[in-house]
Amino acid sequence: KEYRHLWSKLDGLFKSTLRKHYEREYVKNSIGYGQTGYTHFKIFLALIGHLANNGKSTMLQVLKSQLYPFCDSLDAELFTAEQIHPSKLEPLRRGIRIGFVEEIADKKKLNAQRVKEYVGLLNEIAKIRVLYSQDEAEFNFMCKLYFATNFDVPFDRSDNGLADRLRAALFTTRFVKANEWKGRLKRKSHLDNPEKYWNDRGFYPEDSRFGEIFKKSELMASVFQDYFYPRSVQAVQIKDLPEPESMRKLRTQICEKIDQMA
Fold first, then answer.
1. C-alpha torsion sign, points 173, 179, 182, 186
2. What pTM was computed for the model?
């Protein structure tokens, strides 16, 4: 009973935060791929949500809670600072398989060349010059990168190499507080299913206990692995993840906007 409940909660997280089926499946396939030690896709993922409380952070924290130490957050300075302090490299040196940047400071730009080089280095020896030293840090780079942002991806420039490696998924849901949710249901109480009415328009009630359920349940690790295992198996058998048309269009729009602002 608990297993089915946890499976339903995990499945519900993806259905509510990523409302487009093809984008949802792509992100889940990316996570399945991310868990493996394989690095052949040479892509990175941008998770974009223009509304507040869209579920990106919850999803990333669930990944970290279930996959740590193989999944961890990364300091945005790895991709924004001109020079990198050695401490910022520690998660990469540990050989994490999924690393995510959850917050990019306002007006900060991601170094497009550095991101492109990191993605191209997958499963190779990375050499990165660090602050206060003429030496370079060397380690086997296995980390698949996720960038979460409430705005368009803030790269300092764009080129064909960056565009080829970028994949972008749009989070259009808004999770609202209990009082606001009750008010919305009341306003549509004349409908047969006011909850579905608001869900179809991207509104869901916020569940403040959501993340804790996954962290505290001893069974959740098994549920999580079973949920993604078929996708991990598939990932090592194919050369690339087919990109949905809606994601390809979003990627093109992002790159065109970067070109205009550069």
1. negative
2. 0.88
